[in-house]
Amino acid sequence: MGQLFHSVLLIEEKCRGCTRCIKNCPTEAIRVRAGKARINAERCTDCGECIRTCDNYAKTAITDPLSRLKDYEYAIALPAPALYSQFGPDVDPATVLAALIDMGFDDVFEVAYGADISTFLTVEYLRRNKRKGPMISAACPAVVRLIQVRFPALIDSLIPVDSPMACSGKLAKEAKSRELGICEGKIGAFFITPCPAKVTWVREANNLGSFAVDGAISISDVYGEVAKRLPEVIPPYPKPKASSAGAGWGRTGGERIAAGIGKSLVVDGIHNVIDVLEQLEMGKLSDIRFVEAQACTGGCVGGALTVLNPFIGRMNLEALVARLETPPNLFEELDIDLNLLRRFDEFAIKPQIVAVPAFRLDQDVSRAISKAEMIEKVVNELPGLDCGSCGSPHCRALAEDIVQGLAVDTDCVFKLREEIEILAEQLFEMAKKSPPALKDNDAFSKPWE
After folding, report:
1. Predicted structure pTM score
2. Complete domains list, the chain, with CATH
3. How confident is the model at residue 240 (pLDDT cuts 50, 70, 90)?
4. Which of 295, 411, 444, 445 is the most buried (most CB within 10 A)?
């Protein structure tokens, strides 16, 4: 996919080299060297786990400022369903949409509505596709990137349907272009994002010439302004178009519930997702038809760029879903051009998802095999405590770094202690010796008497 952009950044002056991030990174993309964390761009999935776990606030995410709205003649907000969850269980989505317009957006288009479209497309794809084995939702960009980096054999199992964010951006710009009679290039669509992985998706898509979404603004950046305006906004409010099923995509299990897919599996939390993907890679879940995988605990309500505790956010969103009504014939009631949607190319993921060989030891197979053998040898020489004091997440990672020339064995404090003990013994033995000229030795003195 070319040069990859990463939204997650290290603020070096805040980093204290505490090693918490290296222990929690799901792809072992972080090392601590010279007292500072270092992020391996090839392995990073922008899941935001390091942002969540850093007590020193040394990890952050690049997002777009609100000032970018001025770059376009017309600016549309694309609020994620998770945004609603941040304002209590009784929030009215219409007032949240009104608050966004009061902040400076010209219009809003619910990503929950895009979720309804993605639901339709997913159901249609599974109905038409007779492939055996589990199919994996591609709605979470952190999970997609994880599969590219660590589980490339599962790429063909990804459902090639665009995310609700992308579907919303496309439809919003098309509709406003027709209504206002201006080209889509003058219309900016800005996703209100709960996580850094979606920021990365937007930047990468734009770099590759796809402009469905023009920018991403974090929920944490708009939260204060929206919360301040909620009691003040007055009717008429924008009328929400999304169903309760679409709004439910903001929490774990929402996609499965909306699609009504049997024999499905739902998993959240990036480390739990890895466990499930390992099972899928080994072919152990062949009876499952559909997998909904979310990198964040609780789903998007648990994103690293949200404000509220993810469990409270989930409770709030579930209360909202319970209040909304979904028509019995959802896709007949929604204002969706089904003839357009049945042309899957309009809403298929582009460009094609390809593997990113970040875990390859060497491009040459024979050298890679040789390095793998060397890694096993080094692992056996290390203590196996996985303490992280070396700046690598565990002993095997340090062994790999050593073989790759990125570390030395004495980076391990236990190996360093062994070397110091050996050196101390050698120095002690040397200290007991004295030069021949200073020795009281009769055997040497007699010939000179």
Report:
1. 0.86
2. 8-59 (3.30.70.20), 66-347 (no CATH), 377-432 (1.10.15)
3. confident
4. 295
